[in-house]
Amino acid sequence: METKELRRWSDLPQSTPDDFEITPSAAKLDGIQVGGLRGRLIRETEHLLDASRHMGNCLDTYVDRARTGDTAVVLVEDAGQNETYAAAFSVDGTSIRLIEVNSKNNKHNVPEDFSKSLDQAVQLINREARRSPSVADDSGGLSLA
């Protein structure tokens, strides 16, 4: 299969088949909106490997953990700043925790308020999961202005 260079993460087609184990809590990360930016949960190996090449960093090291559902990876594209951010989350049952957020080529220029907003989103998801752990609503799309 020929691989072409991606100019933007959003150039990837939307994926439908999942080869990653996605918990209901992790599924809520798909479509997450933080500060006007929208995130996309990576659900399959091929897209994670493409994202790693696009980001120029070590996202591909999360493949095995993403397959088992222990890690979730979300990419957020900021078209206005011509920047892409990758956020990795640890997943433990109904609880998730932000591991890291980084920018393309590990430039470490992730706005501090963006990282804090992701932490707040994780807290909301975890709080909701504790209130109703049996609800398997994976509609995602949590929004933080």
Fold and architecture overview:
By secondary structure, the chain is of the alpha+beta class. The chain contains four helices and six strands, in the order H-E-E-H-H-E-E-E-H-E. Strand 1 (33-34) and strand 2 (37-41) form a beta hairpin. The radius of gyration is 14 Å and the shape is globular. The termini are far apart.
Task: Note the main attributes of this structure.
145 residues; alpha+beta; six-stranded mixed sheet; 4 helices; 6 strands; globular
The number of distinct structural domains comes to 1
Strand content: 15-25%
Estimate the helix proportion, in percent.
25-40%
Order of helices and strands: HEEHHEEEHE
Low-pLDDT sequence parts:
135-139
Alpha-beta classification: alpha+beta
- The overall pLDDT average reads 80
What's the tally of helices? 4
Radius of gyration: 14 Å
**Spatial shape:** globular
Task: Write the SSE topology.
Layout: H1 24-27, E1 33-34, E2 37-41, H2 45-55, H3 63-68, E3 71-78, E4 83-92, E5 95-103, H4 112-131, E6 143-144
Parallel strand pairs: 1-6
Antiparallel strand pairs: 1-2, 2-3, 3-4, 4-5
